[in-house]
Amino acid sequence: MKIKYFALALAALGAVACSEKVEDAGNTPQAGIGGGDKGYLAINLKSTDDVTRGAGDTYEDGTAEEQAISTACFFFFDAAGNPFNVNANGNYYNVGVADNGGVEAPNIESMTDPVLVVEKYKGEFPAKVVAVVNYTGTTNLSLNDLKNTLTTVGHTSGSQFIMTNSAYVNGAGEVVDATPLTIDHFQTSIDKAEQNPVTIYVERTVAKANVKAGTAAFNTGVKVGEKEVYAKVNGWDLVATQDESYFVKSIDAAWTDAELGFVWNDAAYFRSYWTGKTSTVAVSNAFTPAALTNNDDTVEYLGEHVNAANTDRTKYIVSATLQDADGNAIEIAQWYGTNYIGEDALLAAVAPTLKNKLMLLTTEGGNNVYTSIDDSQLQCVAGLLGAESYEVKFQLAADAPMTGWYSFDGTQYTAVADVNGELAKIEPAKVWNNGQTYYYADVKHIGDAYGIVRNHSYKINVTGVAGWGTPVYDPNMEIETPVKPTDKETYISAEINVLSWRVVSNNVTLE
Q: What is the pLDDT of residues 27-59, one digit of tens each?
């Protein structure tokens, strides 16, 4: 991908005020600009992915869709970050981009150089500018507004990714979240302006994530009986995600690498790798196992999400099927620490424990006969009160007799609910129905930090699993939050590559 996205020529300073002095944060006005003269400001818009890369770093260029552009809006400010009016609309100028007759929308590289006519305001030049790509401005916004306004347009669209100024701390220890403008950037002609352009470094406000597991089944390292158990990944999804990011990233020059646990600022490359402010909208950890269908090629786009409580970190959840060496699904059940192959085997083990405790009254030859409940009259049910999301309780089977049940002391249960109430007191079991299971872990950022930061690509490569994961009995039951069985060590091994459309490799065992 080329470094230069586009060059923007800005025709400036049509007189609207009677002041003759042209100032810019203490800069001396250039001869020939001021009063009724016109000035031009050339802007080069560049991606932070395209600056010189450090030794050992790997970067990932955006796809054609991720670079596509339809509009650009430029917001101008005074030295304090207040709106600086540049035309009749206010402090912003919108630029529309034609599709040039192509099948796909143009990317920033192919954007035709526009010329913006900007009116002088009180004889002064704007001191700062922020570019917002794939956004159309409609009202004046200060720099502080952009820091406190969440993106709502084109955030996760397939071809309209919002990009804004990259925020970082420069070599002088100053936060750069808007591009400074000096008097030297304003010239008397387009040609002269293009010889001395101002460069704005932009980055996407979204992050993206992808989980790859390949086609191989992973040995879980835990046998059932003498049978090796493997886990074949079916799909994945993310939970505890944010849908929006702020237009301009908020950073703090006082942060230290020791505090955050990684090198967070990169002044030489005009960017930083952390943010101090993300949306406070409550995240959802809920998911449905049957909906974990993303494959190796799926990419999810998401908003920034940092400094969350441990339970609300962004997580990836992987759906898998437990199977034998030949690829046949293994249905495993576990009760009181004993493993069974199949739900029928589990019920056959549970029924004898109810002997003489739950009996069915029948009549044979005019005599009352009490028969203990058997396994054919039992079923497993998920989602009952008192059980974890990965546990099942026992209830009367749908085709079992609905009347004639007595307790061990001869007391008759008057309703099926009473019988089920007694059955519900039995220790819950775990059933990997048809071998269905899931694994999950928090998405790691860089070093020991957890979070989602804009313009980073979180590439999670599943390299192995340990244990059978969390049982799934009903794949269509919504689970409020992913959990791990309390009495079983289970985790997923993964190698996480964090690309800011830059790669940081981490070999991680996620538990």
A: 333 433 444 445 677 777 777 765 544 444 566
Distance CA 334, CA 346 (A): 8
Backbone angles phi, psi at 113, to 5 degrees: -65, 115
The beta-strand segments (E) located in 53-177 are: 58-59, 71-77, 92-96, 115-119, 128-133, 163-165, 168-169, 175-176
Helix (H) or strand (E) holding 379: strand 378-382
155 pLDDT band (50/70/90 cuts)? low
Long-range own/partner contacts, residues 18-21 (CB < 8 A, 24 or more apart): 19/122, 19/123, 19/124, 20/123, 21/123, 21/124
pLDDT of residue 102: 45
CA distances to 249, 257, 306, 429, 489 from 277, rounded to whole Å, are 7, 18, 8, 43, 35
DSSP 217-232: PEE-S--BTTB--EEE
Which runs of E-coded beta strand occur in 142-229?
A: 163-165, 168-169, 175-176, 179-180, 186-187, 198-204, 207-212, 218-219
Question: Is the CB of residue 321 less than 8 Å from the CB of residue 220?
Answer: no
Classify 343 as helix, strand or coil.
helix
Can you tell me whether residue 287 is helix, strand or coil?
strand
259: phi then psi, degrees, rounded to nearest 5: -65, -45
How high does pLDDT run on average in the chain? 82
Task: Let me know how long the chain is.
Answer: 511
Q: Which domains are present in the chain?
A: 4-205 (2.60.40.2580), 208-244+279-328+434-510 (2.60.40), 337-426 (no CATH)
Candidate ranges 76-90, 154-168, 337-351; pick with highest mean pLDDT = 337-351
Handedness of CA 328, 333, 338, 341 (dihedral sign): negative
Is the model more confident about 1 or about 252?
Answer: 252
| C-alpha torsion 362→363→364→369, nearest 10 | 50
| Residue 70 burial (CB count, 10 A) | 18
Least confident of 14-28, 222-236, 389-403, 470-484: 14-28
> Does residue 495 or residue 372 have the better pLDDT?
372
